[in-house]
Amino acid sequence: MKLTIERSALLRSLGHVQSVVERRNTIPILSNVQLVAEAGALALTATDLDLAIVEQVPAQVARPGGTTAPAHTLYDIVRKLPDGCQIELSSSADNGRLTVKTGASEFSLACLPREDFPVMNEGELPHVFHLACRDLRRLVEKTRFAISSEETRYYLNGIYLHAKSLAEGNVLRAVATDGHRLARVEMPLPEGAAGMPGVIVPRKTVNETFKLMEGSEGAVELALSDSKIRFTFDSIVLTSRLIEGTFPDYERVIPTDNDKQVEVDRRVFAEAVDRVSTISQEKSRAVKLALTKDRMVLSVNSPDSGSATEEVAVGYDGGQLEVGFNSRYLLDIAAEIDGENAQILLADAASPTLIRDVSDASALYVLMPMRV
Amino acid sequence: MGQDAAEATLRRAWDGGRFPHAWLLHGPAGIGKATLAFRLARFVLAGGGPDGGLRLPPEHPVARRVAALAHGDLLYLGPEGIDAERASARGDITVDEVRRLAAMFAVTAAEGGWRVALLDGAERMNANAQNALLKLLEEPPRRALLVLTTDRPGRVLPTIRSRCRKLALRPLAEDDVVRALGEVAPQLPAEQVRDLARLAGGSPGRALALAEEGGLALFAELVGMLAKLPALDLVRVHALAERMQRSAGEAVFRLWLDMAELWFQRLCRHLAGRGSVGEAAAGEAAVAERLGQGLGLERLLELWEKFAASASRADALNLDRKQVVLNFFLALQRLAGATA
């Protein structure tokens, strides 16, 4: 392999793919990025065995071929080279080295054969559809905080992406839950997504996709089967394995007849929760919400460190009620509400509580109360 | 290599179309359990292969990725695969390691076929890890294969054993060991190979270890010193015992204990089976014949028990190792003298 490539193009692509590579790896080749040069382009591939990112960058290819080289080292080298320079990458099969050359600098990196590099076999992906990066980002951003990190219920370690037909029309839905809280966000079903299987996208894939979408305004192509998902941005392709299992029937936990309705300024509420929770113990983080007509008193009582109360003006007319929540969870949800006001729908102090954005009906959150 | 019967069993099970999801390969150390497990993994990950055995050409793409441990659907937990920082001090396989395995089975296959986990040295799983594994064995995911290997099946929970298809691997025939040694360690002198093969009792791995640690030389020395019983070259005995002193001698002492035990086992087998054992060192049979005359197996065993007890006492209480060695030779001398 022998090629010349512009530094900033190489740096940007390496930046994308190297974030997949784990810092510590027991398997040597997983620390490497695969470089394949073919007809006017260099393809970079990195994988952690669960997902693989391939990015194509234009390059002047003098001799096609491929090898694998340490991803983080290569990234650091390219990062430190002067901006705007042309980099020459070359390798030959017999010495097992990748030479990085520009101006007066020359590096020689130990390589591993390309044949040993893992393969992500995507197989047939029968369901293909397009959506705007903005929309996908919204689905991911508003749900990913609720992904469980508990390994025993592995089927909760991702976002459940599925199509759903409703009376108002068909939607693409993203749901995540950890058993204490649940986030459900939807958007109109893109063309071609009808009949797609419900898939559970693992957390790391979700986060990597999110990173790739940062600042991007274009479209993304989703292709999936019941065992793989593929995201295609302009020149970047991310393919991932899916979580195998059945996502629980989440609709049963979404309350439909909570009649005690609270409307509160999102920011005022979040700040108040944040302030009073300073007192709460590290572990439980419980905050009590005492509701009377148009008034909410937030309080935290910790036998060790003291107590705190704060009063917030709300819109409420449902009779006296006291309910406790984990303050961390309340803050997480409040952070995802973009509109001015949040609506909290309660039944009693022990039943699931619904929180939603007053100005946005497509996102809703369910939170289990705590006993306080 | 030399495990054709076991390989044929696995192949038959594969061809039969109902391949068990868990196999427990057991048999003495160093006879090729892990080798067979890897062959099976390659074969299954490649989705089968040509007729006869589990052979897959080494240049096959799957074989290459398996060799680099870079196959997305293979997880290897074994002495070489365990993360040094995560493994506990005793080299156990911990519950975290087994959870990694569960995590691999929780996602769909990377290459779309089977997912294979190799647990090499399953007896090293601690109790928690074994219990965590049980869940997987009870409800195996689709197209998942677990291969456990162990040389101490008794230390694996019975509940695990009962959920695996057991496959016993036999020690290799002496000629197979010789052939195996010729391939993996061509640097060994030809005249040693046969002796090593005999001493190792059908285990090429053990034979290699014996060659590396100098066990064969020590064994030959031991036989040489016993050759003239009841006459005993006390200067040599003292010199040998001297080598086991202090901390530097501990490895030699352990090896010597192993060799003494091996010699004893072989002696008993020789006496019971009348010369079917073969010689692993020149003069071994002659010594055995001489000691055997007039001495019943019973008295020899009694001697051995005493010796083994004193050796383990010396180990536990940090007693003088030299004394243990001297006692061994002197006791044998007394015995031989009494019969002469």
Quick summary:
The complex is a heterodimer of chains A (372) and B (340). Chain A is built from 6 helices and 26 strands.
- List the chains of the largest interface with their residue counts: A-B, 31 and 24 residues
Question: What is the structural class of chain A?
Answer: alpha+beta
The CATH superfamily of the largest domain in chain B is known as P-loop containing nucleotide triphosphate hydrolases
CATH superfamily of the largest domain in chain A: DNA Polymerase III, subunit A, domain 2
- The total count of helices of chain A amounts to 6
By DSSP, the count of extended strands of chain B is 5
How is the largest sheet of chain A built, in terms of strand order? Answer: 14-11-12-13-26-25-24-18-22
Integer-rounded radius of gyration of chain A:
25 Å
| Number of separate helices of chain B | 15
Helix content of chain B: 40-55%
> CATH top level of the largest domain in chain A?
Alpha Beta
Fill in the CATH topology of the largest domain in chain A.
DNA Polymerase III, Chain A, domain 2
In CATH, the architecture of the largest domain in chain A is: Roll
Key words describing this protein structure:
heterodimer; A: 372 residues; alpha+beta; DNA Polymerase III, Chain A, domain 2; 3 domains; nine-stranded antiparallel β-sheet; eight-stranded antiparallel β-sheet; 6 helices; 26 strands; elongated; B: 340 residues; alpha/beta; Rossmann fold; 2 domains; five-stranded parallel β-sheet; 15 helices; 5 strands; 54% helix
